[in-house]
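A common beginner's mistake is to predict each chain separately and then try to dock the pieces by hand. The better habit, illustrated here, is to supply every component at once so that their relative placement is modeled jointly.
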Amino acid sequence: MDYLEIANSPVLYIGVAALIAVVVWQASVYISRTLKRAKELGIGSEKLKKAAKVAVLTSIVPSIAIVVALLTLIPVLGLPVSWGRLSIIGSLSYELLAAKLGAEAASVSLGGAVYDATAFLTSVTTMTIGSFVTLGLTIFGFKWYKNRLNKSIGSSKADNPWGRILMAALIVSLYSRFLAEPVVEGGSAFITMVSSAAVMFLLDLLVKHSKAFKWLGDFNLSISMISGMAVAVLAGI
Amino acid sequence: MKNDKIVSYDEKAHSFGKLSLAIGWGATLVFPLILIFAFKIPVNWNFVLKGAMSILILMIPVGLSEFLSIAPMIGPSAMYIMVLTGNFTNLKIPSSIAAMEAVGLDPANYTDESDVISILAMAVSAIVSILIIAIGVIAIAPLSVFLENPKLAPAFANIVPALFGALGVSMIAKHIKLAIVPFILGIVLLWTGFVPSALVLPILVLAGVGSARLMYKKNWIRG
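With all components supplied together, the output reads:
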């Protein structure tokens, strides 16, 4: 049997179903607990609905990008494994890398002429084993790490200015990583980033200073992103 | 009393989080197990070991540095959601930050309310993502014709710059002094290639926190 016949076999959708079920289960439990906690803290339902709405809107474009990533993986790994693995834990770059390392371990090239069922299995085991690193760190080390951090930052941030600055510094450093990259890369990445930033800046001004455009606030991020991406397309033409 | 409640809430978040991650990883074993037992594909343990060694050598430092950098920024529940579903920087963190800002919270000033909003946003984001991917799979044939149009390629190749360009504006504007060192250092490190790309984030986090501490001590910034 050609490996792709196996890779696209309907039986593998059991794996997809299992992975999707875990994600939906985890998300549902956390949503239910968080809504209960919101009630305890006196957070109004309007705020929660708004937060959920913005989360939905913000997720659409990046999720479409994941579908595009799926199109890249399917010819090599078949639909079920690509779908299942991109829905959970992984990203395109990780899955491709791990699949490639698995193929190399089997002394063949990924998706090549001699890439057979055993090589495919090796790719899948490599992808599976590698994804345990972050999972394992979180399962065994996160609680301890978080408790240590909380002790050093202090539990009450209201009277702990350093705690607030530390949080801001962490987030700004994360952002800097991803803002520096397009600056160095130049070209369409840089144009996209600047366009997206410019649109966001303008929309923020509109929302702040015009009551008529207040509704735009929920769509700021999506509009800015799509504008930036559109500029990238136009620049490429 | 209040502290006991918070502690208990966090404890439950950790317990459930660990359980869900363990079950999640167990679910990823379904693929290789089906291949081995349903299709009877012979397992070459030598290959499996070699593949495992290669990926672990790479993922242990990368996973560790990502974990150490990101874990301080978010609450327990949000971390477990993020780790299970992946796509930290392009999906989960932006959803969380956008949701917090939409309800008037400062993402850099993490409170119990921020925690609630963040968890809600990330969990909703996880479900939306699953749905959109499922729709994408069902519509895969006509979609692939549209999405694989080479003219659209620059759009999808630049999603992360688009995202961070938009998010960066308000975050950097609010914290310019904190951004100077990590941003400039980020440009230098990426341009010169002195360090592997995977190490840039933890270095910037150390530099960002270090410079923030220095500025705080010198009273150049106030919390």
